[in-house]
# Entry
Amino acid sequence: MDFYKINLLFVGFAAVIHIISFAAVSGLQFKHSPGNITSSLGKPVEMQCVLMMDEGDEEYEGPPDVQWFKQGQPLEFSDTNQVQMPFDDDTWLVISTLRIAKVQLSDMGAYHCSVIVEDDETVSMEGHLQLEGLPHFSVEPIHMSVVANANLSLLCVAHGPPEPVHIIWLQDGAPLNTLEDPIALSPSRLNLTGLNKTSSFSCEAHNRKGVASSSSGVITVLPSQPQDVKAVEITNSSIRLSWSPGFAGMYTINLCTVQVKTSGEDFISNPDHMIHNQNVNIPPVSYLIADLRPFTQYDVRLACRSSEGISDWTPWMNFSTNEGVPDSAPVNITTVLNGTELLISWAEPEGEINGELQGYMIEYSTPNMEQVALDIGMLKELSVNVSQSLPNITFRLRAYTGAGYGPWTQMQTLSLIPADVSRSTGQPSSPVLSWHWWYVVMAVAVAIGLAVLMAIYMAKLRRKETRFGEAFEPMMESGELVVRYRARRTYSRRTNEATLNSLGISDELKQKLQDVMVDRHKLTLGKTLGEGEFGSVMEGLLTQEDSVLKVAVKTMKIAICTRTEMEDFLREAACMKEFDHQNVMRLLGVCLQTVESEGFPSPVVILPYMKHGDLHSYLLYSRLGDSPVYLPSQMLVKFMTDIARGMEYLSSKNFIHRDLAARNCMLNENMNVCVADFGLSKKIYNGDYYRQGRISKMPVKWIAIESLADRVYTTKSDVWSFGVTMWEIATRGQTPYPGVENSEIYDYLRQGNRLKQPPDCLDSIYSLMFSCWLLSPKDRPSFEVLCCQLEKALEELPDPQDPDEILYVNMEESSGELGAVGGRDPNIAGGMCSLGPLKGTESVATAEIHPPGRYVICPQHENQRLLNADSVESLNISGSTPTLVLQPSTRSTPVPTSEMNTSEDRDGPGSKRIMW
# Structure
C-alpha cells in the first residue's frame, strides 16, 4: 500500500473518531462538512466531507458520488478523491477529499458537498476558505495623457485579507502621503491639481502581512490647444495666420502643425485632399499659407508639439481668400455688319472668374478715329455706328470683378464690307502691319543673335583651360592666339594649393592636411559597388610612386555648403588619418573635386578596399544567398569581438561613432571586421533611417533612447548601438525590432521593451548585449569591459577546428571578382578548390584547404568533415580525375559509395585511394 492510500486510511480513521458519538441511522447523511479554513497564497489546502450510508439500504446500489460545490456552482475539474470504508457491521463511510495544491485568490469562497440518489439530494453544511497574505490590487494606475495644468483623479484599490489595507501613493518614486492620511484607506483616490510635469505614479498597499507594490502608470503632460487663431493678412492667394501656443507645463513648445483643406471636403474619407500639412518652427508664431485659389473658402486647424507629444487639434476654422481677376477673356466673339451698324456679341469667360463678375470693357478704334474704351456693365453685346467709307475697325474685350480686370482678348480687325453682307468671326482678321515690316523685324533679331553668339565665343576662347593649365594665350607682338603647355604635375600642385586657399581655412589646419589631401588625377574610378540616397561607393585605383593600390572611393551627392561644414569635414579627416588599429577602417586620403553648381568642392573619401564588403550584407548572404553558409557561433562571437576592439580604440581616442551598425562594419580578406563609416559619412544614410521633423535623418533602431529624446551622443550611446549590432550578428542580418515602425521606436523603448533573445544565441552573449540597453547610460558597460567579456566567451566556446563541431557548405561564386560578399580565393587559406564532377552524377565536388594542412572533401548537398593533414597522404587536383589519398584511420564523411570508386593497397599498405 503506497503512501497515498495510507494517508487516506489515517484520514478515514480520524473521521470515524470524529463521528463515533453519532447513532447509526438508515439512509444517507453527512457526518462531517467542510470547515472554515484560513490560509495564505500559494499554500496547499485540503477540505473533507464524510458521508454515512447503511449497507442494507435498497434504494441505491454501490457508493454514491459526492459532488463538491463552490459558491453554489459545481466544481467540474477539481482534484478530488473518494474512499469508502466500513464503520461497523451495517454502516459504511464515504470520505471525499478536495485538494488545492497552491491556493489562489480565486479559490476563496464557500464550499459544500452534495449527494443525489433518485432525485433525493443530501447536502452538507458550508465551510469557508479565506486567504491571508500580502494585499492584492484590483485597480492600479494606468498610462494616460493629460493636458498641462489640468485636474486629475487617480484610483488605487487593494484587498486583503487581512484587512484593513492602507495605500501610499508615489510620484516618480517619492511618497505623497502617509498611512495615517484619510486617503490612505483602500480604495484610495488621489486628486491632482495642475499637473505640469510628466510623472510616473504607483501605489504601495500595506496590511499586517506586509507590503505589495502596484504597476506604474505614466501620466504624460501634453500641451493644451493653441489659442486665438486668427488671420492677420488675407490676399487673393494667401492667408497669414497667427495664434498663441497652448500651455505645456514645464516643457517648451517649439513646433506647431498647420493643416488646410478646402471647405466642404471630408477630411476623414479624403485625407489626401489636404492642401497644406506643414510643420512650423516657433517663434515666430505665424505662418503664411500660400498658393491658394482666389475667392475660395478654406478650413484651417492647428496643433502644437512639445517634447512629450502633440496637443489636441483646434476645431476647423473657416477663412476666405479675397477676390481675384478673371483667369481668361470672353469667348465666342461674333460680329455682324448691317449697313452702318456693327453688332458685336460674346460669351462669359470659360476659366475661373475668381470673384463676382461685375461687367465687361471694350476698346475699339478705326484708322481715322482714336481708340475708345467703354465700360458696358453686364451686357454681352454692343452695337457700333460705323461709316461705310472706313476700311476696317479694330477691337478687343475683357471682363472684370471687384478685384480688377482680367486679360484682353486677342486684338481683332474687321474689314467693313458693303451693306447687306454680314460676317461672323472668331479669329483675328489680317494684321494691321504690312508684310514688309515683318522682314525688317526678323532681320534685326537675327543680327542681334549673331552678335551675342560671337561675343560669347570670343570670351570663352580667351579663358579656355584644360587639365594641363591655360591652353591659349595672346602673343604680345602679333596679338594672335598661341598654345602654351604646362606639365600635369605642376598643374596638380597649383590646383591643390589654390583649392585649399580658396576655402579660407586656417594655416594650422592646412599644415595638418599635408598628408591627407590626394591629387584627384592620381585616382581612377571604376564600377559602382553600392549606392544610397546621399552617396555612392565605387571601386578605384590609386596611383602611388611605385605601385597602384586598389581602393574604395566614397563620393557624396550632398555638397558641403558652408565654410564651417567644410572645415569640420577636413578636421575630422586629419584626425582619422592618424587611426592605426586592425579593427578600425583607416582613411587613405581625401580629395576635393569641383562641382560647378555648388559653392564648395565636393569631398571624395578614399578608403582601403574590403574584399567581402559590409558585414550586414555578408550575414544576409550567408543566410539567404543562393549558396547558404553556416556561420558557427565561434565566427559570430569573433565578429562581435572585432567590433568591440575597434570601438574600444575609438573611445580611447575620445571619438564618438554616432552610427554603429552591421552595415557600417567591413570584412577584409582575412575575415577580420573593421569599424567604418564614422564622422565623414554621417550624412550618408539608407532606408533604415527615420526623418524626425525637418532636422535630419536618424537611424532610430540603432540610436540610444537618450539620443532619440535629446539628440545627445556619448560613448555610452555608442555602447547601445553596439548592443543592437550584436543582435544583428546573432540573428545573421535580421532587421531590429521586427514589426515596430520607426516612428514608434521611442515609445516602444520608453515602455521598457527591448530586443528579444535570438533562438540560438548563447545566454551569456544575450546578457551582455542586454546590458548595453540599460536605461541609465552610466549603468552600461564600457567597451573595455565588453571586449574582455567577449574575448572570455570566445575562449570558452569549443575549438572551431574540432571536426565534430564544423559543417562546411559550398559557397562558390560564378565570378572570381574581389569584393563580392562571401567570395573565396583558392590561393589563400580557407579557399575553395573545385575538383570536378562526381563520377556518375552532375554534382560538383570541391576541396577546401585550411592551415596548417587540413583538407575537406566537399560534395554538394552532403555533410563535410575536416581531415587532418597527418591523415592525408596526397591530394591531386591537377589532372582530369581528382584524387585524394587517405590513411586508414581517417575519420571523415566521404562521398557516398555509389558516387566513388575505391581501390586498396595501390598507394602503400593500408592506404585507400578515393576517386570521383
